[in-house]
């Protein structure tokens, strides 16, 4: 009989916590070798109220990493390590740590796993941008070097991982979070007060929350680009964006600010809009599974042109470039994302198969080291 595992997922940002909803839902509803899922929150998200929304809206059950110095700032590697070991030890069975993405919490979880000598599964793995000094890409490359199993959502990401870690186990699946988003929107029905999808003059959805993007010159460039294209937009406010707008004067009439929404409400708005303008790396994929294209405003151009995935990437603060991208996605219309429904139970069971084959109990980490620089 297969052993039952405990998986400790270390997360910290709001998107990561949202993605855990799909993981919890899937493991509760399907037979799996994962007997226990522990979600550890490092508290990385800058706004506790926003970070709490996925828990109340989607029912995500997350434990917060205890800190000796109280709240504020990231926990230490030692604190995350102690939480991982303590929360997972009760089961008595085999254990593994799961991290995802390219955040500070990703690196903290990976460092804690390596220090504890526990197997490390890296989901959403990929090398990211080659732009020098790009912090998220540096995190990705550090974790890729030490993970026992690499899980990614595209063949192109897998190709890069095979080059970076020859011989390392790389698994390719369709992103299970996207199927979860589509199910949530289907269950909720259309968003109240939003025009029927496909109406040309419907407002786009605009979200800006990255530290690089939350500058007057970037926000102004986006507003000007929308005005040039005579495109109305619903602007979803965060506390940081609200404070910035207060210093910039009146919001132009073609942009309608609204308080930040729960994950479900945001997805419903995107599904009913002609397209999305955002600085988020996650939201364009959510929009794509809902049949909508996106304009992705970035500080760098390392991702190249992703229009074949429904995304027009714009680097910098050039309002003309943003306007051209808006015109491009609006012209292209709805987007049909090729997708095979995938569950976390499939992904984790396959990862555990690989661990059983490649890393016996009590074996040293894949890198042969107990620390990550």
Task: Please report the distance between the alpha carbons of the first and last residues.
Answer: 39 Å
Radius of gyration in whole Å, from Cα?
21 Å
Basic shape: globular
Strand content: 15-25%
How many DSSP E strands? 13
Largest sheet: 7 strands, parallel
Order of helices and strands: EHEHEHEHEHEHEHEHEHEHEHEEHH
What does it look like?
42% of the residues lie in helices and 17% in strands. By secondary structure, the chain is α/β, with parallel strands linked by helices. The chain folds into 2 domains: 5-173 and 342-358, Glycogen Phosphorylase B (Rossmann fold); 190-331, Rossmann fold (3-Layer(aba) Sandwich). A 7-stranded parallel β-sheet has the order 3-2-1-4-5-6-7, with helices on both faces. Helix 5 links the parallel strand 5 (120-123) and strand 6. It is globular and about 60 Å long.
Short description:
The chain is an alpha/beta fold. It has 13 helices and 13 strands.
